[in-house]
Amino acid sequence: MVAVMRQLGRMEEADEVERRLKSVREALADEPDSEEQTLND
């Protein structure tokens, strides 16, 4: 998605998408497998 946005010249929007994805990945990496724990409790 980001690659297509960059090809279309939408650099600022592509940067924002990358920033948000990075934030989500970091948040997911910091969390234990809470969904798995919830299902098994």
How is this structure best described in words?
This protein is an all-alpha fold and 41 residues long. The chain has three helices and no strands. The chain has a domain at 1-26. The protein has helices at residues 2-7, 11-30, 34-40. The longest helix is centred in the middle third of the chain and has 20 residues, at 11-30. The model has no long low-confidence stretch (mean pLDDT 87).
Number of strands: 0
Rounded to the nearest angstrom, the distance between the terminal CA atoms is 37 Å
- Strand residue percentage: under 5%
Helix content: over 70%
The H-and-E topology, N to C, reads as: HHH
The biggest sheet amounts to: none
How does the helix and strand content classify structurally? mainly alpha
Average pLDDT, all residues: 87
Short description:
It is elongated, with a radius of gyration of 15 Å. The chain is built from three helices and no strands. The chain has helices spanning 2-7, 11-30, 34-40.
